[in-house]
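Why show two proteins at once? Because comparison is the fastest way to build intuition. When a single record is shown, students tend to memorize it. When two are placed side by side, the eye starts asking what differs. So, the first record is below.
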Amino acid sequence: MPKPLKDLGNCPACGSAEVNAIWFGMPAWDYEQTWPSNAQVGGCLVSDSNPDRACTNCGLTWISPDGNRLGL
């Protein structure tokens, strides 16, 4: 499995560092083999209002305050 994305910050609700980047758009068929371990599929409809972070601890989703929507 590919290595995870850089530090994605902490959850604003629970403070957990277990945060995933949410990526929207049509993934390649083998995305599970090539995507970083802390990126997840958000859906195929892309919008500026889509959340781009998800806490794996409490389930909160939000838009990153730093504007780094891909987590790269």
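Second record. Ask yourself what differs from the first in the token line.
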Amino acid sequence: MAEQTEGNKDFTNLNLDDSVVKDMLKSGGGKSVDFNTFLKIAAAQFGGFSEESELKDAFTTFDGKDGIDGAVLNSSLAELAETDVEKKAVSEVVDEFTKENKITGYKKFDAEKFIESVKQ
């Protein structure tokens, strides 16, 4: 199993062919990739992401009066996940782009920041 360090995720449970993974790592520039680099590599490998406007439209589905509730988004996306590994990955990504209001406890997902990170 690959060594997992802070900021890096272990993607060994995706059941990808070894040659595909090696090619993806080469295109990423190394033996270890962070999650954003993985998204870029996956986008190149699997045909890219939706247009920015489509992503924004998708996130408006979750947009409430105080913004996107991170807990609601996490729960909704977790329902789409087929395995515990996918649910954990969804949770990690949502948490990475969610800030908690220290007074109210409300967790707001920053869709703009997420979209910018995917575009880079």
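One difference worth noting in the second protein: The longest strand covers residues 67-69.
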